[in-house]
Write a structure and sequence with these properties.
Layout (H helix, E strand, L loop, with lengths): L1 H9 L1 H20 L9 H9 L2 H9 L15 H16 L1 H8 L1 H30 L10 H28 L4 H11 L2 H14 L4 H23 L1 E8 L2 E3 L2 E3 L3 E7 L6 H18 L3 H10 L7 H24 L2 H10 L2 E2 L7 H36 L8 H30 L1
Antiparallel strand pairs: 1-4, 1-5, 2-3
Family: Belongs to the SecY/SEC61-alpha family.
GO cellular component, one term: plasma membrane
Subcellular location: Cell membrane; Membrane
Length: 422
C-alpha cells in the first residue's frame, strides 16, 4: 500500500485527486470544530450519552452532534434520500427507466435525490432544534431558533456538495469518505475512555484484551470476505476468418462474496436512526417508546434493534446487488461474443445459473455483514465496554479503506497503460 501511495504521488493527476480529497477532509474536520453559537453543549452531550440512537447518530457525524457544531446534522439526510429514491425505482417504472437511460438519467436521479435530501434536512433540522436542542438554547427567541435551523440545513447541504465533489474530483465515494473520517476521528477519544475505565477499575484488563482481539479478528475477517471472489469459468468458441483463428480463450466472471460492499450497513444504520427524528415531532411519549423499543440501549429495544438491523442488512445486500450486478446484461454480452459457461447452455439457462450463484453468495455475504455488525454490541452489553470502532463502524472503516485501495490501484494501472500507449 505504501509503495502504491509513493507511485501515485509521482503521477500528477492522481496526486491532484489525493490532495483534493485531503482538502475536503480538512474542511469537514474544521466544520466539525466550529460550534453553533448560543447552545449549551454540556446539555447536548448529556442527552447523547443517555440515548443509544443519538449516540449512533453522533458516531456518524464524528462527534459533531454532541458538540453541536456546524456539521451536527451530518450527511444523513443525503444517505436517507438515496435509500428512498433507490427504493422508489422499484415501484415507479418512470424512475426505473431513468436509472437505465445512461448518464442523463443518472443526472436526473441525482437531482431528485438532492431535492429529497433538502426536504429531509429541513425536517431533521426543525425536529432536532425544537425537540432536542431547544432545552440547550441560551435564548428562546424565534429569530435565534430559525437561525439555528437554517445553519444546520445549510451546513448539511454543503456537506452533500462536498461529498459529490470528492466523488467527482477526488478518490473514493464522497459520502462514504465523510462517514469514514467521522468514525475514525472518534478513535483517540475511544481509547482514552477505555484507559480511564481501566484505571478507575470499572473494566478489567482481560475485557480490554478480549475487545482488542475481537476488533483485530474482525478486521481480518472483513478484509478476507470483502476481497473473496468466486470465479465462474467462461470459454469462447473458436472462429476461423480466412487463415486466422479467433476466440478459443478461457476467461472467468468474477463474482464477489460481498458484492454490495458496506452500502447495506450504512443504509441500515441510517434508517435505524431516522425513527428518533420522527418521534421528536410526536411528543415525549413517542420518544420514550422509540428509546425503549428501537434503541440499542433500551429493554427490550436492544434485541429488537439488533433483529431489525440484521433484517435491513440482508435486505439491502440483495437490493443493492441486483442494481450493481446485472446477470441479464452479462448473459447477453457472453452470447454476443460467443462465450459460454462449460456445462451450461447459453441464454436463459446461463442467466438462471448466474442468478443462483449470485443469490447464494449474496446470502453468505449478507449474513457475514449482519453477524459482524451485531456481535460487538452483544459483547459490549455483557462486558460494559462499548468501542466506537467496532461492529457497524468497523465494517464501514475497513470497507471504505479497501475501496480506496482498489481505486488507487486502478488509477495507477490506467496511468501505466496510458504511458505505454504514448
Amino acid at each position: 500500500m505504501l509503495s502504491n501511495l509513493k507511485q501515485a504521488w509521482k503521477i500528477k493527476d492522481v496526486r491532484r485527486k489525493i490532495l483534493y480529497t485531503l482538502m475536503m477532509i480538512v474542511i469537514f474536520r474544521i466544520g466539525c470544530t466550529i460550534p453553533v453559537p448560543g447552545v449549551n453543549r454540556d446539555i447536548i452531550k448529556g442527552m447523547v450519552d443517555g440515548n443509544g440512537l443519538l449516540s449512533l447518530y453522533n458516531m456518524f457525524t464524528g462527534g459533531a452532534f454532541s458538540n453541536f457544531t456546524l456539521f451536527a446534522l451530518g450527511i444523513s439526510p443525503y444517505i436517507t434520500a438515496s435509500i428512498i429514491i433507490q427504493l422508489l425505482t422499484i415501484g415507479f417504472p418512470a424512475l426505473e427507466e431513468l436509472q437505465k437511460s445512461g448518464e442523463e438519467g443518472k443526472k436526473k436521479i441525482n437531482k431528485y435525490t438532492k431535492y429529497t435530501a433538502l426536504g429531509l434536512a429541513i425536517v431533521q433540522a426543525i425536529g432536532i432544534t425544537l425537540g432536542i436542542v431547544r432545552r440547550a438554547l441560551q435564548t428562546d427567541s424565534v429569530f435565534f431558533i430559525v437561525t439555528v435551523i437554517v445553519t444546520l440545513i445549510s451546513a448539511s447541504m454543503l456537506l452533500m456538495w462536498m461529498g459529490d465533489k470528492i466523488t467527482e474530483k477526488g478518490l473514493g465515494n464522497g459520502s462514504s469518505i465523510i462517514i469514514f473520517i467521522g468514525i475514525i476521528s472518534r478513535i483517540p477519544k475511544d481509547i482514552t475512555q477505555s484507559i480511564s475505565q481501566f484505571e478507575s477499575g470499572s473494566v478489567g484488563l482481560w475485557v480490554l484484551i478480549v475487545m482488542a482481539v475481537v476488533s483485530l479478528l474482525t478486521v481480518a475477517a472483513v478484509t478476507y470476505i470483502q476481497e473473496a471472489t468466486r470465479k465462474i469459468p467462461v470459454q469462447y468458441a473458436k472462429r476461423v476468418v480466412g487463415r486466422k483463428t479467433y476466440g478459443g480463450q478461457n476467461s472467468h466472471i468474477p463474482m464477489k462474496v460481498n458484492q454490495s460492499g458496506v452500502i447495506p450497513v450504512i443504509f441500515a444504520s441510517s434508517l435505524l436512526a431516522f425513527p428518533q427524528t420522527i418521534a421528536i415531532f410526536m411528543g415525549k411519549d413517542a420518544q420514550a417508546f422509540v428509546t425503549k423499543f428501537l434503541s440499542p440501549t433500551g429493554e427490550p429495544g436492544f434485541w429488537i434493534y439488533l433483529v431489525i438491523e440484521v433484517v435491513l442488512i440482508i435486505f439491502f445486500s440483495y437490493f443493492y446487488t441486483t442494481i450493481s450486478f446485472n446477470t441479464e446484461d452479462i448473459t447477453n454480452n457472453m452470447k454476443n461474443s460467443g462465450g459460454f459457461i462449460p456445462g451450461i447452455r447459453p441464454g436463459n439457462p446461463t442467466m438462471d445459473y448466474l442468478n443462483r450463484i449470485l443469490s447464494r453468495l449474496t446470502l453468505a455475504g449478507a449474513l457475514f455483514l449482519a453477524v459482524i455488525a451485531v456481535i460487538p454490541s452483544i459483547i459490549g452489553k455483557f462486558t460494559g465496554v462499548h468501542l466506537s470502532l467496532a461492529g457497524t463502524s468497523l465494517l464501514i472503516v475497513v470497507g471504505v479503506a479497501l475501496e480506496l485501495k482498489r481505486q488507487l490501484e486502478s488509477n495507477l494501472v490506467m496511468r501505466s497503460y496510458q504511458g505505454f500507449l504514448k
